[in-house]
From TrEMBL:
The lineage of its organism: Bacteria, Bacillati, Bacillota, Clostridia, Eubacteriales. GTP binds at residues 22-29, 90-94, 144-147. This is Peptide chain release factor 3. Keywords: Cytoplasm, GTP-binding, Nucleotide-binding, Protein biosynthesis. Pfam families: EF-G_D2 (PF22042), GTP_EFTU (PF00009), RF3_C (PF16658). Residues 13-282 form the Tr-type G domain. It comes from Oxobacter pfennigii. One of its GO terms (molecular function) is GTP binding. Increases the formation of ribosomal termination complexes and stimulates activities of RF-1 and RF-2. It binds guanine nucleotides and has strong preference for UGA stop codons. It may interact directly with the ribosome. The stimulation of RF-1 and RF-2 is significantly reduced by GTP and GDP, but not by GMP. GO terms for cellular component: cytosol. It is found in: Cytoplasm. GO terms for biological process: regulation of translational termination. InterPro entries: EF-G-like_DII, EFG_III/V, G_TR_CS, P-loop_NTPase, PrfC, RF3_C, RF3_dom_3_sf, RF3_GTP-bd. Belongs to the TRAFAC class translation factor GTPase superfamily. Classic translation factor GTPase family. PrfC subfamily.
Length: 526
């Protein structure tokens, strides 16, 4: 095998690409920051928070995130650790943006679910977990905030199994809880690790590692904690399920870790075991069968489009997940959906704290390229024939609808431009109502907060004030009705006809039973 090939395969096999999900405030940002700290990508903790603050400055519409204390968009970070090249995809915690989360998960090979030890499985954890489950990717659990009073670890295991319906297997087990968190026991290696130092979480922690038999641990932990640990280990071994990595990879068993992101206790043991257990870049489905990452034909799909990341440039970035082959700056590839060659001229990657231009990248990596408005979500890029298309990214049916107008009729052009760009990003879905003598825009969203984002971004990025009139509809169905004359259709007073961006007919309903009535009233239409 030629040498170049070897390095290519080595590069692929050291990639780990995962998303972090959590209910807001469980500690996702803190954990991300600590992973960067261990990767040496930042020297002192506190920088990611600073970056979070700085991001607001450079990307003004994120002001809305600050005001509400939520994260609206997903960002991407890459760093190196122990020979691994790690890509972390951050996801919005709020359920109103679960569609964005789903798109992000399509680009990830596994997910880490952060849980607050005191709160257990929270509402958003449940929703986000469901989205992960739909993707069928491995899910790892990091129980956070062990430095404080929290639920009993056995109780948390049970809660995960009951509420989320996934079996759990603790890989390590906390020693000392409720403000007395001393260390973890690694069940795989049958080793105790007791933490010390750590400079209140600003620097990486020192620890003493050894076998449970080591006398030193009785001394370090004291008789009570040591005794409790021995009892816990016995209980776990008796009651617990077998560990089966295949079931982990199928998303049927979640490996569980305990730690405290703020003090760094348990972060490194988690990272080491997680990286070993999680999947390498996975094959992806195309219309020509599965494509494996070791395939040398470069290919990627676009999973996120974001406009106006930098208000000074009003640029639009398309994020792609590389699935096969090696990426090189300036390469020409086929944009399969458009049937055109495009040059990938200014590829950017998001390292710990900066955007940088990338020269090369490998399967598992995420890069952003400048998009002059040609890409759509789900599009495939492919270097050499035979060209293929990755499975599209599904859109979620909207559950809230509103009529939206430009407050200033003189700004209609800007308004239309803004709305269509934000719909291309997947922020909103746009429909038109045409059966009322004029054309009116209907916006569909999965969560109401998306409408707020629309309003905010139109004002700040396009200078357009809008008026929003909420509509009572909750359900949408696509109707296979090709006739342009819709007057022949039976439409009840609590439903409405509109067209999507492809001019396909959609019907909006207030009540679910309205759907059945429509089908009965219009025989032959699906
Ligand atoms: P996110 O919303 O999930 O990104 O959560 P953040 O990382 O912003 O954390 C939310 C709050 O919890 C912040 O005030 C953190 O300082 C705090 N926090 C995060 N991790 C820990 C931890 O391990 N222990 C304690 N006591 N607090 C934590």
């Amino acid at each position: 095998m030629p040498e170049q090939n070897n390095t290519f395969l080595e590069e692929v096999s050291r990639r780990r690409t995962f998303a972090i999900i959590s209910h807001p405030d469980a500690g996702k940002t803190t954990l991300t920051e600590k992973l960067l700290l261990y990767g040496g990508a930042i020297r002192l903790a506190g920088t990611v928070k600073a970056r979070k603050a700085q991001k607001y400055a450079t990307s003004d519409w994120m002001e809305i995130e600050k005001q509400r204390g939520i994260s609206v968009t997903s960002s991407v970070l890459q760093f190196e650790y122990n020979g691994y090249c790690i890509n972390i995809l951050d996801t919005p915690g709020h359920q109103d943006f679960s569609e964005d989360t789903y798109r992000t998960l399509v680009a990830a090979d596994s997910a880490v679910m952060v849980i607050d030890a005191a709160k257990g499985v929270e509402a958003q954890t449940k929703k986000l977990f469901k989205v992960c489950k739909m993707r069928g990717i491995p899910i790892f659990t990091f129980v956070n905030k062990l430095d404080r009073a929290g639920k009993d670890p056995f109780e948390l295991m049970e809660e995960i199994e009951k509420v989320l319906g996934i079996q759990s297997y603790p890989i390590n087990w906390p020693i000392g809880t409720d403000g007395n968190f001393k260390g973890v026991y690694n069940r795989k290696l049958a080793q105790i690790e007791v933490f010390g130092g750590g400079d209140h979480g600003r620097a990486t922690v020192e620890s003493t590692v050894g076998s449970t038999e080591d006398e030193i641990f009785k001394e370090l932990l004291g008789d009570h904690l040591y005794g409790k640990l021995c009892d816990d280990i016995e209980l776990l071994d008796m009651a617990g399920d077998e560990f089966d990595i295949k079931r982990v990879h199928n998303g049927e068993l979640t490996p569980m870790f305990f730690g405290s992101a703020i003090t760094n206790f348990g972060v490194e043991p988690f990272l080491n075991e997680f990286l070993e257990m999680t999947t390498l870049p996975m094959p992806r489905t195309t219309d020509a069968g599965d494509v494996y990452p070791d395939n040398e034909n470069f290919s990627a799909f676009i999973f996120k489009i974001q406009a106006n990341m930098n208000p000074a440039h009003r640029d639009r970035i398309a994020f792609m997940r590389i699935c096969s082959g090696k990426f090189q700056k300036g390469m020409e590839v086929n944009h399969v959906q458009a049937g055109k060659m495009v040059k990938l001229a200014q590829p950017q990657q998001f390292l710990a704290q900066d955007r940088v231009i990338v020269d090369e990248a490998y399967p598992g990596d995420i890069i952003g390229i400048f998009d002059p408005g040609i890409f759509n979500l789900g599009d495939t890029l492919c270097q050499k024939p035979p060209y293929f298309k990755y499975q599209g990214i599904p859109v979620f049916p909207p559950e809230h609808f509103a009529r939206v107008y430009s407050a200033d009729t003189m700004k209609r052009k800007q308004f239309i431009k803004g709305v269509s760009q934000l719909s291309e990003e997947g922020t909103i879905q746009v429909f038109k109502q045409t059966d009322i003598g004029r054309e009116e825009l209907i916006i569909g969203v999965v969560g109401m907060l998306q409408l707020e984002v629309l309003e905010y971004r139109l004002k700040n990025e396009y200078g357009v004030d809008i008026r929003i009139q909420n509509l009572p509809y909750k359900f949408i169905r696509w109707a296979d009705y090709k006739d342009s004359d819709i007057s022949k259709l039976y439409i009840s007073s609590d439903s409405m006809i509109a067209r999507d961006k492809n001019e396909d007919l959609v019907v909006l309903f207030v009540y679910e039973w309205g759907i059945q009535r429509f089908v009965e009233g219009n025989k032959g239409i699906n």
